[in-house]
Amino acid sequence: MLHNAPCCRLVFRNAGLDNSVPVSKEAKKGWDYHCGHYYKTFSEYVRTVFSDGEIILKRVDEKFADRFGEKSLDILQEYLKTDFNLISGDAF
């Protein structure tokens, strides 16, 4: 089962990190953050790869909003502004 944990635990192999490195509460992100990350990543991919990418994304957004509501779509779309390549200073 996929969503059976309260948070995601990322493992960075060979990064020299072990359990002695404290993890702040701010470093643990909620499901909206992770879903927003996927949403932005796949949106960028679809726009880049498919000539009708904007049309595809519009249909996906409509179906998502029908199923989960406009408010949920708004939350995802807010993450289009997030630079997921940066790690904020409060993560450690």
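Second entry:
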Amino acid sequence: MSDCHDDEDIITVEDAVYEMDAQVEESIAILGASDSDNCTYSLGYMERQALFACKTCDLKGDAGICYACSLTCHQEHDLIELYTKRNIRCDCGNSKFNGFECSLIKNKDLLNEKNAYNHNYKGLYCTCDRPYPDPEEEIEDEMIQCVACEDWYHSRHLGSLLPAEFHEMVCYLCVAKYNFLQYYYNEQVNTPDIDVVSVDKEKESKNTDSHFSLSDTLTNEEKQNKIKKNEEMCKLEKLKHQFVNLGNIDKNVSFYWNDGWRSSLCNCAMCLELYEKNSIPFIIKESDTITFYENKGKEKADNLLKDAANKISSMPIVQQVELARGYQELKSGLQNFLRNFPPNQIVKKEDVESFFEELNERKRRRVTNIPPNNCR
């Protein structure tokens, strides 16, 4: 191998492709599954997508726009990042925008009748109905999203101490609204020690045993029919007979669920109808979870990174080294550039343009010393 490069430079190239800090990781998880070029309107009411609200266009705060529209149609506007929402069709350019047209898809319906909005679209959150970050708030507090209503809550407003680990949370308002969830009390993380079971355990056990026992006098066909009937029994109805002291549960405490709690919910025909009636059929779907959505985003991003790594590895070594240097220079330069600004000062477009002009000037000064591309 030629002396015009060393192994350290090559390793740096590989590392540069995959190097990300925590903030970039989060952005990839949320936006990685999104299409940056095409409006999602034609896909209808999507199961889940990254969404934004535009304060510049929509003063009422009752419209959501997709990721592509946030970049193309509203790139200079004051946007509210909504993380992800379910069952929303992109509103960009419809009647809520007072004549403002979507640049990506023309002739949209005047309204998306099935869209539902909460105060998050106005930049407000929690039962305290405050913005985040809150300029008047001195207490740092974690914001947790309820998987039912999708509002965000300060942990101190959820009625109990935040567990060290949990998978998903349903706020106390939604637990009261969908009160059947209380019967799945034991699916929580660190279930509080409250007496909610008052059925005679011995009696219950005997009843259960007699109900599920298969007599030797039954034919095989009768046994199979009995097994099938037992399997079709409603889990929720069983829990209702077990949890009879639900009044002991604090009505102002939210539920923090274990991983896999959704799969513990009953899937019988009656319960499926119950979920539909309450407009929460998503509650039993793992594909509805943020974890599922984020994994899709990370997988898509990983594939793009692998493609980039393959393309870089096929470049001449000199170009690889130059690319690595450029990446490191951009990263360190941008960090130093931002450190020069006070925490709450807005970075203007002119400041960014000046930064890149200086960066390009340093590159021009260095480019005359680059070895020929055929150096391998």
